[in-house]
Amino acid sequence: MYKNKSVKIYLDDLSAKKPAPGGGSAAALAGALGAALLSMVANFTVGKEKYRQFEQEIKSSLSKSEKIRKKLLELVDLDVITYTKVAKSKKKSLALYQKSLKEAANVPLEITKNCIEALELCPILEAKGNKYLVSDVHVARQLLVAAVHSAVVNVRINLPYIEDKEFVHRVDQQLRSWRV
After folding, report:
1. Res. 93 pLDDT band, cuts 50 70 90
2. Domains of the chain, residue spans
3. Is it true that domain 7-177 has CATH number 1.20.120.680?
Protein backbone atom coordinates (compact mmCIF):
# COMPACT_ATOMS: atom_id res chain seq x y z
CA MET A 1 0.00 0.00 0.00
CA TYR A 2 2.04 3.05 1.20
CA LYS A 3 5.16 1.16 2.16
CA ASN A 4 6.44 1.25 -1.40
CA LYS A 5 4.99 4.58 -2.47
CA SER A 6 6.32 8.11 -2.26
CA VAL A 7 5.93 10.28 0.80
CA LYS A 8 4.03 12.71 -1.43
CA ILE A 9 1.36 10.12 -2.22
CA TYR A 10 0.98 9.28 1.46
CA LEU A 11 0.71 12.94 2.46
CA ASP A 12 -1.75 13.67 -0.36
CA ASP A 13 -3.96 10.81 0.85
CA LEU A 14 -3.54 11.80 4.50
CA SER A 15 -4.71 15.33 3.74
CA ALA A 16 -7.60 14.23 1.53
CA LYS A 17 -11.20 13.65 2.53
CA LYS A 18 -10.64 9.93 3.07
CA PRO A 19 -11.24 7.78 6.15
CA ALA A 20 -7.69 6.40 5.96
CA PRO A 21 -4.82 6.97 6.31
CA GLY A 22 -5.29 8.89 9.52
CA GLY A 23 -3.72 9.51 12.89
CA GLY A 24 -2.73 5.91 13.57
CA SER A 25 -0.72 5.49 10.42
CA ALA A 26 0.77 8.97 10.92
CA ALA A 27 1.90 7.87 14.40
CA ALA A 28 3.55 4.78 12.88
CA LEU A 29 5.28 6.92 10.27
CA ALA A 30 6.56 9.36 12.91
CA GLY A 31 7.92 6.40 14.86
CA ALA A 32 9.55 4.97 11.73
CA LEU A 33 11.21 8.35 11.11
CA GLY A 34 12.53 8.35 14.67
CA ALA A 35 13.89 4.81 14.34
CA ALA A 36 15.48 5.71 10.99
CA LEU A 37 17.32 8.62 12.62
CA LEU A 38 18.65 6.27 15.30
CA SER A 39 19.87 3.93 12.55
CA MET A 40 21.58 6.85 10.82
CA VAL A 41 23.43 7.80 14.01
CA ALA A 42 24.52 4.19 14.52
CA ASN A 43 25.64 3.91 10.90
CA PHE A 44 27.77 7.04 11.25
CA THR A 45 29.33 5.59 14.43
CA VAL A 46 30.12 2.01 13.41
CA GLY A 47 33.60 1.59 12.01
CA LYS A 48 34.99 4.83 13.44
CA GLU A 49 38.18 4.38 15.44
CA LYS A 50 37.07 6.98 17.98
CA TYR A 51 34.06 4.81 18.91
CA ARG A 52 35.69 1.37 18.60
CA GLN A 53 35.15 0.58 22.29
CA PHE A 54 31.38 0.89 21.76
CA GLU A 55 31.30 -0.96 18.42
CA GLN A 56 29.33 -4.03 19.56
CA GLU A 57 26.80 -1.99 21.52
CA ILE A 58 26.26 0.39 18.60
CA LYS A 59 25.92 -2.52 16.14
CA SER A 60 23.33 -4.06 18.44
CA SER A 61 21.47 -0.73 18.59
CA LEU A 62 21.59 -0.52 14.80
CA SER A 63 20.13 -4.00 14.44
CA LYS A 64 17.31 -3.15 16.86
CA SER A 65 16.54 0.24 15.32
CA GLU A 66 16.37 -1.25 11.84
CA LYS A 67 14.04 -4.03 12.98
CA ILE A 68 11.79 -1.44 14.64
CA ARG A 69 11.91 0.91 11.63
CA LYS A 70 10.78 -1.87 9.29
CA LYS A 71 8.01 -2.98 11.66
CA LEU A 72 6.69 0.57 12.06
CA LEU A 73 6.64 1.02 8.30
CA GLU A 74 4.51 -2.13 8.04
CA LEU A 75 2.23 -0.71 10.73
CA VAL A 76 1.61 2.41 8.61
CA ASP A 77 -0.18 0.16 6.14
CA LEU A 78 -1.72 -2.17 8.73
CA ASP A 79 -3.37 0.78 10.47
CA VAL A 80 -4.97 1.83 7.18
CA ILE A 81 -6.19 -1.72 6.58
CA THR A 82 -7.64 -2.21 10.06
CA TYR A 83 -9.35 1.17 10.16
CA THR A 84 -10.91 0.48 6.76
CA LYS A 85 -12.24 -2.81 8.18
CA VAL A 86 -13.82 -0.95 11.09
CA ALA A 87 -15.57 1.47 8.76
CA LYS A 88 -16.88 -1.33 6.53
CA SER A 89 -17.84 -3.74 9.34
CA LYS A 90 -19.98 -1.19 11.14
CA LYS A 91 -22.59 -1.58 8.41
CA LYS A 92 -22.44 -5.40 8.33
CA SER A 93 -22.75 -6.91 11.81
CA LEU A 94 -22.12 -6.10 15.45
CA ALA A 95 -19.85 -9.14 15.90
CA LEU A 96 -17.68 -8.19 12.94
CA TYR A 97 -17.62 -4.58 14.09
CA GLN A 98 -16.46 -5.62 17.58
CA LYS A 99 -13.75 -7.82 16.13
CA SER A 100 -12.59 -4.99 13.86
CA LEU A 101 -12.48 -2.53 16.76
CA LYS A 102 -10.17 -4.85 18.69
CA GLU A 103 -7.89 -5.20 15.68
CA ALA A 104 -7.91 -1.42 15.27
CA ALA A 105 -6.88 -1.01 18.92
CA ASN A 106 -4.12 -3.61 18.63
CA VAL A 107 -2.29 -1.81 15.81
CA PRO A 108 -1.57 1.39 17.75
CA LEU A 109 -0.68 -0.78 20.76
CA GLU A 110 1.98 -2.38 18.57
CA ILE A 111 3.10 1.06 17.40
CA THR A 112 3.45 2.14 21.03
CA LYS A 113 5.42 -0.97 21.98
CA ASN A 114 7.85 -0.54 19.10
CA CYS A 115 8.38 3.17 19.74
CA ILE A 116 9.09 2.53 23.42
CA GLU A 117 11.67 -0.08 22.40
CA ALA A 118 13.26 2.49 20.09
CA LEU A 119 13.27 5.11 22.85
CA GLU A 120 15.35 2.72 24.96
CA LEU A 121 18.12 3.06 22.34
CA CYS A 122 18.32 6.86 22.66
CA PRO A 123 20.49 7.03 25.81
CA ILE A 124 23.02 4.57 24.34
CA LEU A 125 23.32 6.46 21.06
CA GLU A 126 23.35 9.81 22.81
CA ALA A 127 26.20 8.77 25.10
CA LYS A 128 28.18 6.47 22.81
CA GLY A 129 27.20 7.44 19.28
CA ASN A 130 28.87 9.90 16.97
CA LYS A 131 28.97 13.14 18.98
CA TYR A 132 28.26 15.24 15.89
CA LEU A 133 24.85 13.58 15.56
CA VAL A 134 23.56 13.98 19.09
CA SER A 135 20.92 16.43 17.83
CA ASP A 136 19.61 13.68 15.54
CA VAL A 137 19.16 11.44 18.57
CA HIS A 138 17.18 14.26 20.22
CA VAL A 139 15.00 14.66 17.13
CA ALA A 140 14.48 10.88 17.04
CA ARG A 141 13.42 10.95 20.69
CA GLN A 142 10.89 13.73 20.02
CA LEU A 143 9.41 11.88 17.04
CA LEU A 144 9.18 8.64 19.03
CA VAL A 145 7.55 10.34 22.03
CA ALA A 146 5.04 12.03 19.71
CA ALA A 147 4.37 8.67 18.05
CA VAL A 148 3.75 7.01 21.43
CA HIS A 149 1.34 9.70 22.58
CA SER A 150 -0.44 9.68 19.22
CA ALA A 151 -0.74 5.89 19.16
CA VAL A 152 -2.11 5.85 22.72
CA VAL A 153 -4.79 8.36 21.69
CA ASN A 154 -5.72 6.02 18.83
CA VAL A 155 -6.04 3.08 21.23
CA ARG A 156 -8.08 5.01 23.76
CA ILE A 157 -10.50 6.38 21.15
CA ASN A 158 -11.64 2.83 20.35
CA LEU A 159 -11.98 1.47 23.90
CA PRO A 160 -15.41 2.94 24.76
CA TYR A 161 -16.93 1.17 21.75
CA ILE A 162 -15.52 -2.26 22.58
CA GLU A 163 -17.98 -4.39 24.53
CA ASP A 164 -15.42 -6.98 25.70
CA LYS A 165 -14.67 -5.48 29.13
CA GLU A 166 -11.84 -7.94 29.80
CA PHE A 167 -10.09 -6.81 26.62
CA VAL A 168 -10.66 -3.15 27.50
CA HIS A 169 -9.30 -3.66 31.03
CA ARG A 170 -6.22 -5.53 29.78
CA VAL A 171 -5.45 -2.86 27.19
CA ASP A 172 -6.02 -0.06 29.70
CA GLN A 173 -3.63 -1.73 32.17
CA GLN A 174 -1.02 -2.12 29.45
CA LEU A 175 -1.31 1.56 28.51
CA ARG A 176 -0.95 2.60 32.14
CA SER A 177 2.19 0.49 32.53
CA TRP A 178 4.03 2.37 29.76
CA ARG A 179 5.65 5.62 30.81
CA VAL A 180 7.20 8.02 28.33
Report:
1. very high
2. 7-177
3. yes
